[in-house]
Every structure is written in C-alpha cells, then in structure tokens.
Amino acid sequence: MNDRAMFPASWGALDRSGTRQWRVTASQELAYEVRQVDGLFDPLSQALLTCNESGLPSTRQVVVIDERVDAIYGRGIRDYYHHHRVTAHILTLPVSEETKDLDAALVIVRHLEAAGVLRRSDPIVAIGGGVLLDLVGFAAGLYRRGVPYIKVPTNGMAMWDAAIGIKTAVNTLGRRNRLGSYHAPSTALLDRSFLKTVDRRDLSNGMGELLKLAVIKDARLFDLLERHSAMLLDSRFQDPVVAPEVIEHAVHGMLEELAPNLWERTLERSVDFGHSFGPLLEMKALPELLHGEAVALDVLFSCWLARDRGLLQDNEVQRVIRVMRSMALPLRHRFFEEPALLMEALEDTMRHRDGQQRLPLPRGIGRCAFVNDVSLDHLKAAARKMADA
Ligand SMILES: NC(=O)c1ccc[n+]([C@@H]2O[C@H](COP(=O)([O-])OP(=O)(O)OC[C@H]3O[C@@H](n4cnc5c(N)ncnc54)[C@H](O)[C@@H]3O)[C@@H](O)[C@H]2O)c1
Ligand SMILES: [Zn+2]
C-alpha cells in the first residue's frame, strides 16, 4: 500500500479574518488478492506461507481459528506448520452472532499482543466462517491502527461473501455490524474443499447470498442455481464442474460491484439487495434466523415489492421461490409478515443509507433498479404475499 499526501510547499493561506489554515489531501492505494487454491494445508502448498510483504516464506504465523473448524481441521493445520518449521501462535475462538462483539475482538487483540506481532511482517491468518473473518478483520484494523491479515474462509457465507470485500464489523447496541471499519486483507485464499464438512443448514444459509447476487445482477448464475442448487447442497459444492463455476460467478460478481465502490461513497449498492429489512429483523430473531436466511427472506419480500410495481412478473417470483426451496431456505418468518416492524427496519436502513431508501429491487431477473418511494401500504401488500407463501 502506498500513501500519497499532498502538503502545500508554501505556508498555509490566510483566510479573510487573518487566520492561517492548512489543507491536507491524501490518497491511499489499495490492493489485495482473492485467490482460489486447492489443498491450502497440503504439505506441498506454499500459498499461505508466502502471503507476506516480502514474499519470502514466513517462519512464524499468528492464527485465529473458529473453534468448530479447529475441531475438524486443527490437527492437519498444526501438522502443516510443523512440516514447514513455522511457529504458529494459534488462538481458537468460539464464534456466534451473539458473541460477535467488542469483547471477542479484545480477546484477539490480547492474543496479538501476547504473540508480539510485528507491525508489517506477521500477517494474521483468520480461518473460519463469516463471524470469525469479521472479528479478526475488525481487531486487525484496530491493532496498532491496522496490521495486515489473510482471510481463509471455510464455509459458503465466508467464501463467496465475507472474504471478498474489505468491511469488518462487530455487533453492538442490539444492532448488526454497528461498529466496523474498512480494512482490506492482504489476501483471501479460497479453498473449496473446506465446504465438505459444513452443516447442511449453514451451507443453505450461505446460499442465501448466492440467491441475492443471482436475482439482482447475474441471470446466468440464477440459471445455474435454478438447475443445480439441490445437487450443490447435497454434494457440499464438491462436484468438479458446476460448483467452481457458481463460486467464480459469485466472487466475480461481488468484486465487480465492490471494487469501484470499496468505501461505499455511493450508497446505491446492488449488493445491498436482501439487506434492507433483514438486518434489524435477524437481530430481533436471534438465534432463530441465520444471516443468509434473513437475506433470502428479504430477497423474496423485495421480489414481491418489485412485483407490485411491475418490475417483476409473477412467474419470476415463482422461480425465485422454487430456487429458495431447492436451497432449503425458509420461505416464511412471522417478522416478514408484520408491516410496522418492516417499516421500522426500513427506517433503520434509511439512516444507514443517509436518509433515503435507495432500495435495490430486481428489474427482471439479473438486473437492478433503485427506488425511494416504498410506503407502508406497499409493505402491507408484500407482507400479505409472504404470509400466503
Ligand atoms: N464483512 C462482510 O463483507 C460480510 C459479508 C457477509 C457476511 N458477513 C458476516 O458473516 C456473519 C455470518 O457468517 P456465517 O454464516 O459464516 O456464520 P458463522 O461464522 O457463525 O459460521 C456458521 C457456522 O459454520 C461453521 N463452520 C465454518 N466453517 C466450517 C467448516 N469448514 N466445516 C464445518 N463447520 C464450519 C462455524 O463454526 C459456525 O458454526 C454475519 O455476522 C455477517 O455479518 C460479513
Ligand atoms: Zn449478507
């Protein structure tokens, strides 16, 4: 990363009252890689060990790993480091949406301190699902005002969503992701073989984000999901043909949307589709609704809103419902049938979008429109449709 700062060569200008003022402008170059890898922890793989600034193999790494992932892969991971004579400082963390908070971030910070992390040369390796990646990113962004880290996503939600962008967060004040930062990883390493041990419900949950992306921006991805979702879920994305294509579409689509708008200067974001009503509702419904399930319900609700204004046809909504069924995603939740609560959720989202709805809705499958005039009556009509599902 290169910082470029412009500082006036001459003394600062005098304003009309005779007070001197200085103005600094700076820009920061940002670069990170998202890379597909096979067998990340195979003894022969060097991918994880050369992801530092020097590109030379590391001799030690600081690792934070999801407790459940450690239970399954911990032995192999420790053997890998041992094989390469790399000292690994490993912190195993229990993770859940309820404990994705400042306390958990501080546990990570203490680990970094105890390990004596070097400011630039010891990237922190985060191995786990979306919660673990968000927590480590958050802690890495705060520690010494930012140290490098590597994302190793191990479930679907993390692999095609949380690992791809630069946002980090913790939950607080009963709100999702209320504290957070933009802190890019140096690298995200995507190893699909991790998915083979993910629970069916957790994988289905991750597929909620695939559904979002397909409906709002990628008709080809929708087509693939329409034909293969059930197989992908059953095979845990281990088939050699369709799964890689689906993941590539998802990663590419995410990057296409995120890269030109990494810091969210533009608040009209198609990837916010499915994230307009769900964020508040899923926090109220914890631990009953998982994030991707709330996204999927929000997608369906938004499809009914789009149907109501002629942006989608009935048969297109039915296709979305069929894909949700084949992904084993829920089609109903009582919160999506309560217009007052949906309005409260939309109002909270409007504050996030600086006072406007900026609501992404599908315009046919695979294209996006933004609207700003959704009323309580519209919410009531869509809520009735949800209840009929
Ligand atoms: N920063 C972002 O851009 C971004 C994007 C999407 C989601 N997120 C965040 O991600 C979180 C949701 O992530 P999640 O759904 O992954 O939840 P999670 O991290 O709680 O993971 C769900 C479950 O999967 C398990 N798991 C992970 N890998 C596994 C494996 N290989 N085998 C078996 N089990 C495995 C975990 O232990 C956990 O029990 C939310 O907090 C959301 O805000 C962030
Ligand atoms: Zn999401």
Question: What features would you describe in this structure?
Answer:
The protein is built from 12 helices and 14 strands. The chain is α/β, with parallel strands linked by helices and 389 residues long. It folds into 2 domains: 32-197, Rossmann fold, CATH 3.40.50; 200-252 and 270-388, Dehydroquinate synthase-like - alpha domain (Dehydroquinate synthase-like, alpha domain, Up-down Bundle), CATH 1.20.1090.10. The strands form 5 sheets. Strands 5-12-9-8-6-7 form a 6-stranded parallel β-sheet, with helices on both faces. A two-stranded antiparallel ribbon has the order 1-4. The longest helix is centred in the middle third of the chain and has 18 residues, at 200-217. The relative contact order is 0.10. The model has no long low-confidence stretch (mean pLDDT 95). The structure holds nicotinamide-adenine-dinucleotide and zinc ion.
